[in-house]
Amino acid sequence: MMQKNIIGLILSVGIFILGFILNGNVGLYFNISGMLIVFGGTLAATLLSFKIDQLRIVGKVLWTGYNRPIKKEPEIINILIDLSIRSRIEGILSLQQHENETTVLFMRRALGCLVDGYHAAQIRDILNTEMYFFRLRREDSERILRTIADFFPAFGIIGSVVGLITMLGGIGDTSVILKAIPIALTSTLYGLIFANFFFLPFAANLKERTNQELLLQKIIMEGVIAIDSEMNPIILKTKLEAFLTPSDRETKLVSYQKLRERFKIEQRELKEQQEQPQHMRTREEAHDLEEEEETGPAVDV
């Protein structure tokens, strides 16, 4: 999936750049003054708004998001089913040797609670707290990215205003006006491109990854609590597959034939068909008797 995204990204960026090249002189879109105004102003506003440590965390989260793939839901479910079988055969304490093997930090923490003998309610409370603050941290990083995305167009407009002021100051001097026009136009261009081409997509990707990881954490929490209650692995598999889309589930749907056999649908329908004519005849005979009582027996003429 990551390779498909990269291929699509390269093609779309190529089409985007081609739109600039077909217009003529590519050098017209590069202006050092406009770029310095936009980038310098955005950087200054960012440093005034957020701490360096927060920006460093955002950078790490972005780097991880684009370089470290997330495990798929079926993989997590298979791991939990395997752990469930091991715990039933070898005991709960046998999971301790697998605690450090898993690459999912949340699962390691959940297994640690399980091995340490916490009750199911305590495990659920601890993991819910972990999920809550994980979501808060990710939302904070997403908020920073969206704020920076808002800074870029604003300073692009500032660059345009600077260019317009320079143009007004150079009325009567063609050379000054020609130098000021690129600043006024390219500044807005840089602000819009970097906001909508980079930072807003960064924030959207972070939100999407956060939702996927929260789903995995929910699956892990339910699976670990089920292992603690010694739930049958087959029942556990059916329960955890409820988190998946129908196309990702391995369990096949029950055939109509088995449904008929289980609930005896065919026999019930046959019995109803046999009883219905007799019931209808009884109602017709009762209706005829009522008419005879009112009008007397019918006489053929």
UniProtKB/TrEMBL annotation:
Residues that span the membrane, as ranges: 5-22, 28-50, 144-168, 180-204
InterPro entries: MotA-like, MotA_ExbB_proton_chnl
Region feature (Disordered): 268-301
Gene Ontology CC terms, in alphabetical order: plasma membrane
MotA/TolQ/ExbB proton channel domain: residues covered: 105-214
Coiled-coil regions listed in the entry: none
GO biological process: one example: protein transport
Topology within the bilayer: Multi-pass membrane protein
Subcellular location: Cell membrane; Membrane
Tagged with keyword Transmembrane: yes
Protein transport in keyword set: yes
Major subcellular site: membrane
Domain of life, per lineage: Bacteria
Protein keywords: Cell membrane, Membrane, Protein transport, Transmembrane, Transmembrane helix, Transport
Family: Belongs to the exbB/tolQ family.
Protein name: Chemotaxis protein MotA
